[in-house]
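My current task is to audit a protein record that another person submitted. My question to you is simply how this chain folds and whether the tokens agree. This is what I was given:
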Amino acid sequence: MPHQERVILPEPETAGTLRRTATSHLGLRVPDVAACSEFYCRVLGMEPQEDLAGGGARLGWGGGHHVLDLLPGEPAVDHIAFEVADPGGLDALEKRLREAGHQVSPLDESFVDEAVADPSGLVCTDPDGTTVHFHGPVGRSGEHAADTGRRPIKYQHVTLATTDVARMAAFYTGVAGFRISDQLADGGFAWLRSNRDHHTLAIVRGPRPGLDHYSYDLAQWEDFKAWCDRLTEEEVDVVWGPGRHGPGNNLFVFFDDPAGNHVELSAEMEKFHDDRVTYVPRRWTPVPRSVNLWGGQLPGWRKTS
């Protein structure tokens, strides 16, 4: 039987929408912290920034805010985190969360670093129970600062799997302040924005809640050849791509880390200018060619979801 679920479209402009909020870092539970840390340093050019309590590791690009918290455990998302640069954004977000009946607690300062000017922030959980951190603007001196053939320029977005796309989209748009850029017409995938990028968060239907994938930005198309060759040299298999997504129009290539997390490299993402244009969320036909305009089948983890 086909899915009857539908994403409820928000109004194009609503009070409390975010305009300057970006991903800041990602917390992952992994069975072997040392192996994953070595992988990200070797393949993506990261550097250890701090040892975490309990045998974890904090990685980044040597300057500015960190990118990854790797924590011991079975593969899972420990937390996702967003930088809220909108003036008054954190206070307004906390008010909306509390009014909607969500529990909010202060962010433990151990989850931020010296690159965050104001370590205050808040923690909540989304409808699937994923821990979400929101905090103030971060320093980003480690981004855009190296050979783009050797490391990405930034951590760009995270995609969560869920059994209920509509419920998750309603939370992140109606309460947290994201906006829907695109969705599949059967309600199985929604791409949400919180700044000019087409999406900083995406939600896809899957057999269970968790991480579908997360993505780093490359500078341009020319980098993709160098990166595919680099992955080959490091004996890392490309598991999907290169291709071009319909929603977002961005180029992509995917590979897996040692814990089995799907990692995307992306470039040329579509930009939205909500201060000048009123956008209506688009609906894409739910076929493989929509999520890869260049054709080909979906990857194995999508086929089984």
About this structure: The first strand starts at residue 21 and ends at 30. Helices lie at 33-44, 89-99, 165-174, 222-233, 288-291, 300-303. The mean pLDDT is 89.
